[in-house]
Amino acid sequence: NEETITVNWGAVNGSYTLSVLTNCEDGCLAPVETTINIGDTGGALACRHEVNVSLGLNCSSVLTPDMFLTSEPAPGVVYQLMLIDHHGNPIPNNLVTEDHLWTTIMAKVIDPCDGNSCWANVLIEDKLPPQIQCDDIEMPCWQVDSYEPLISDNCSTFEYELIGETIQPLNCDPDFIKEITRSYIATDGFGNKSEVCNQTIK
């Protein structure tokens, strides 16, 4: 049986949680919850025509409507965002990933209260450089020559370069015979370079 229920949200804008409980006798279904956003109409919309977005730490980014509007969102307005990939398919949850890297997708910002909308072309990039772990460390002398710094990158392969090294003898130190200071820089597969990492090894 189908039933229609009308919910009066009142005059207060904001996010509400709608919970639906079932009357299944054996309790076979869990409660269903969804978020309802209530807002005012925002009038005319204007989007930035060309937008570049860089993917984040997990080679993904969640896009939001305010990233594409030319002005601050109007107070009390709940905009919606629709993303279309370069094949014409919708992108679920507004989540762009490495599957969209170096492609241009389309973003449509919608005011659901009055139907106004605007469009933007969005180039998905990777501009995040590799990260080098630069903590000072201690190790046996026989491991120094083979030691490599720990490096990570969000989206691609990488390579690193030792760009400087100084060796300071520690003649009066009872625990260590020398101190090595090394400087590294890393570059990922898209040409993004890390900051110089300076590391002391004893």
Give the key terms:
mainly beta; 13 strands; about 200 residues; 4-stranded mixed beta sheet
Tell me, briefly, the overall form: elongated
Poorly predicted regions: none
Structural class by SSE content? mainly beta
**Beta-sheet strand percentage?**
35-45%
Give the averaged pLDDT, no decimals: 86
N-to-C series of helices and strands: EEEEEEEEEHEEEE
In short:
The chain has 202 residues and is mostly beta strands. It contains 1 helix and 13 strands; from the N terminus they run βββββββββαββββ.
How would you describe this protein?
By secondary structure, the protein is mostly beta strands. The protein contains one helix and 13 strands. The protein has a four-stranded mixed beta sheet with strand order 3-8-7-5, with no helix packed on it. Strand 7 and strand 8 form a beta hairpin.
Helix-strand layout with pairing:
Layout: E1 14-20, E2 32-38, E3 50-54, E4 60-62, E5 80-84, E6 95-97, E7 104-110, E8 117-125, E9 131-132, H1 141-144, E10 151-152, E11 158-169, E12 178-188, E13 197-201
Parallel strand pairs: 3-8
Antiparallel strand pairs: 1-2, 4-6, 5-7, 7-8, 9-10, 11-12, 12-13
